[in-house]
Amino acid sequence: MNKTKGAFDSPKLWSPGCTQSSTSLTSLAPPFAFGQQAMDTALNIILIVVLLVIMVSLGCTIEIAKITTHLRRPKGVAIAVLVQYSIMPLTAFILGKLFQLGTSESLAILICGCCPGGNLSNIFSLALRGDRNLSDVGEISVTSWGKASVVMTACSMVLAIGLMPLLLYLYSGGLYEDDLEGKVPYKGIITSLVLMLIPCAIGIILNEKKPQYTGLITKAGMVMLLLSSAAIIVLSVANMGSCIMVVFSPSLLGTSALMPLTGFLLGYAVSAAFKLDDRCRRTVCMETGCQNVQLCSAILKVTFTPEIIGPLYFFPVLYLLFQLGEGFLIILVFRIHDRKKKANDAAKIISASVDTFGAEEMKSVSRHCRNTGKPGKQYIDSAAVALTTLQTLQAPPSAASS
Questions:
Q1: Which end of the chain has a smaller Cβ tally under 10 Å, C or N?
Q2: DSSP characters for 143-202?
Q3: Are 218 and 150 in contact (CB under 8 A)?
Q4: What is the mean pLDDT of residues 350-366?
Q5: Can you state the angle between helices 119-127 and 147-171, rounded to 10 degrees?
């Protein structure tokens, strides 16, 4: 099924033409091989700097008071974290087996599945009008629909320090082969995750001390997310040459398309099974399917050796593209659903008003007839005019709902 199976397990794929460890760059590497070391260093720096900026912007959206409130009644956040760290790693593992991926390929998508959520899930939750308050307390305002997603992202980021290495270890029995045994840098992964908390903490402090700057920093983080993706694509192609095309194999394309979609759908389904309300379900849906692709790329590129991971640090960018497309599609579906539901609710309210008004008018006419012994034509005419007016008002919502 997978034509590239085994290719990732052979060091020959990454050397001498696809890594900077080549001993014969002049004869076997592309013409730009002499600049590969510089481009590789530049790519590492870009990944780290972009991740730092994004984590600071993430911290700027976190309020200590909100986290404290949610942790007092943690049902929604606990369900979201449970779903994220159970569904996504398992989905990555199953897809690796389903598409018969090689060892390094399976490792890359598993790390992507174990990464916590990022800023994108917060934006999607806001667009979906998700619930900021997963503990079902208080009123929901338009400006704070994405707060719950921010809290969930913060909690999943902290828990990733222990859960990501643990999940990698647990799934290693069915994934790793002898050639990768002992080569998974657990220490480097944990160190990277711990260091990522520093810029996040800086963002939280800025939000508390200088809230006037947080909006600008948050926007800068989203701009960096988009620009960095383009920069990573260009530098990756220049650095890896034709080897980068291995990432676009049908098996990896299928995996990157199915992973976020599975997370979105199962996140919503599981939260519905736990009887969370609709807005909470939407938030959990986005938080489950959206992964921190910048963190994943940085871990794959910086902590692993090129001989093991090769160009697979580019896979999270491919995941991001499908994550964006499928996320926007889900938002569109929910927006259409909300619009139709709103029209139907309006029609029901007007219909109920017509029925109530008609009953009251008929009672008035009947009472007049009993008291005077007259047909009460003037009352019947006025009731008929009022009913006609209300039925006319009812027509637009009915037409919209149909």
A1: C
A2: GGTTHHHHHHHHHHHHHHHHHHHHHHHHHGGGT--GGGTT-S-HHHHHHHHHHHHHHHHH
A3: no
A4: 61
A5: 130
Tell me which amino acid residue 388 is: T
DSSP class of 277: -
User: Nearest CA to 135 among 92, 61, 71?
Assistant: 71
Question: What are the two backbone dihedrals, phi and then psi, of residue 61, each rounded to the nearest 5 degrees?
Answer: -95, -5
- Euclidean distance between CA atoms 398 and 163, whole angstroms: 51
Give the pLDDT confidence of 58-85 residue by residue, as tens digits.
888 787 777 777 677 777 788 888 888 9
Could you check whether the bond before residue 74 is cis, i.e. omega within 30 degrees of 0?
no
Task: Give the whole-angstrom CA distance, residue 236 versus residue 225.
Answer: 16
**What pLDDT score does 1 carry?**
46
Grouping H, G, I as helix, E, B as strand and the rest as coil, residue 332 is helix
User: Tokens 């002049």 identify what position?
Assistant: 26
Q: Which residue has the higher pLDDT, 41 or 94?
A: 94
Residue 344: per-residue pLDDT: 77
Q: What percent of the chain has pLDDT over 70?
A: 71
Note the Cα 85 to chain centre separation in Å.
Answer: 13
| For range 41-48, the mean pLDDT | 82
AA identity, residue 282: R
Cα dihedral 349, 354, 356, 361, rounded to 10, equals: 160
CA distance 320 to 254: 13
**Residues 2, 9: contact at Cβ < 8 Å?**
no
Name the token pair of 143: 């400006």
Q: Judge contact between 130 and 280, C-beta under 8 A.
A: yes
DSSP secondary structure of 210-265: -GGGHHHHHHHHHHHHHHHHHHHHHHHHHHHGGGGGGGGSHHHHHHHHHHHHHHHH
User: ∠ at Cα 97 (93, 102), nearest 5°?
Assistant: 95
Question: What confidence tens digit (pLDDT) does each residue in 225-275 have?
Answer: 777 777 777 877 777 777 788 888 999 999 999 999 999 999 999 989 988
Q: Which of 171, 167, 174, 189 is nearest to 304 (CA)?
A: 189
**Radius of gyration of the chain, Cα coordinates, nearest whole angstrom:** 28
pLDDT computed for residue 88 by the predictor: 93
Q: What is the pLDDT of residue 8?
A: 45
